[in-house]
Design brief:
Domain F-box: 15-62
Number of strands: 8
GO molecular function: SCF ubiquitin ligase complex binding
Protein name: F-box domain-containing protein
Radius of gyration: 22 Å
Order of helices and strands: HHHHEHEHEHEHEHEHEHEHH
Organism: Erythranthe guttata
Pfam families: F-box-like
Helix content: 40-55%
CATH superfamily of the domain at 91-272: Ribonuclease Inhibitor
Distance between the termini: 68 Å
Shape: elongated
Strand order of the largest sheet: 1-2-3-4-5-6-7-8
Oligomer: single chain
């Protein structure tokens, strides 16, 4: 009986096999889980997983989806924890389904290295919130706004505050009747370094399109969907190497971009040991 009891104690003291894995392999496994599951579940499994999860390198890219967050956890609180764990090393972040102006400002104030920002269905984030946040993001290269309303002033501020901006997606779903070139002119006048521009649902006319072509001289790719006031002529087809017009469904469009942001995070993690390595979302699109 004593021997049986001793064996039982030894079995209980034996660490689980996954604790013997190299830390880099453990990190790769945990990254498959996603930010929410790491913060709410993985950190409780064992001391090794918790230790690896606390490494700033684990939080260079964060994707937070409201649908992944269950009670009693709070979306904003979890996102703040992820940002804090990054210790200023955050490179890319996607918020989907939730988020506030205060949260966006919190992220920007602690993420001066941020290059990639995607806001998807963040109805509580306003143009004013975006405007204040981007003032803290001078290295931002890629900005994706879907169902996140920003006004002309916010677009102007993005352009002035983010001189390295190369990739801009504006999905406004502004399908009202009438014409307006205000947003197009704001892009043309304040985002001269754009390489790729994607616009879904906009009331711009040929005047706005021509301004973009003349103001964004580095533009190589232009995707436009449901921009019904624009007639694409010879100038556009000759000027833009990659031109796509109303070819995909919006669901496919959203998933494509979010997958690209995820690919970007993997590339960033692979290259984190090489200080000279740079990863661009526009490069991943090729």
């Amino acid at each position: 009986m004593a021997s049986s009891s001793s064996n039982s104690i030894e079995e209980e003291a034996t660490p689980p096999p996954w604790e013997k894995l190299p830390r880099e392999i453990t990190a790769a496994i945990l990254l498959k889980l996603g930010a929410v599951e790491i913060l709410t579940t993985a950190v409780e499994v064992c001391t090794t997983w918790r230790s690896v999860s606390m490494q700033p390198s684990m939080w260079r890219y964060v994707r937070m989806e409201k649908s992944d967050v269950e009670w009693p956890h709070d979306f904003d609180d979890l996102c703040r924890r992820a940002v804090d764990l990054s210790q200023g090393q955050l490179i890319g972040i996607t918020l989907k389904g939730s988020g506030t102006n205060d949260l966006l400002l919190y992220i920007s104030q602690r993420s001066g290295q941020l290059k990639h920002l995607a806001l998807v269905n963040c109805y509580d984030i306003t143009g004013e919130g975006v405007k204040e946040a981007v003032k803290n993001l001078p290295l931002l290269e890629n900005l994706y706004l879907n169902h996140t309303y920003i006004d002309v002033e916010a677009i102007e501020t993005v352009g002035r505050s983010c001189p390295l901006l190369k990739f801009f997606i504006l999905t406004s779903f502004d399908w009202r009747s009438g014409e307006s070139d205000e947003e197009a002119l704001a892009i043309a006048q304040n985002m001269p370094g754009l390489v790729e521009l994607r616009i879904f649902g906009n009331r711009m006319t040929n005047v706005g399109l021509k301004a973009i072509l003349e103001g964004c001289l580095h533009l190589k790719s232009l995707y436009m969907r449901r921009c019904h006031n624009v007639n694409f002529g010879k100038l556009c087809s000759e000027r833009i190497k990659d031109l796509k017009l109303d070819v995909d469904s919006i669901k496919k469009y959203e998933e494509e971009i979010l997958c690209l942001f995820a690919k970007c995070s993997c590339a960033l993690l692979r290259s984190r040991s090489d200080a000279k390595s740079e990863v661009s979302l526009t490069e991943l699109l090729r």
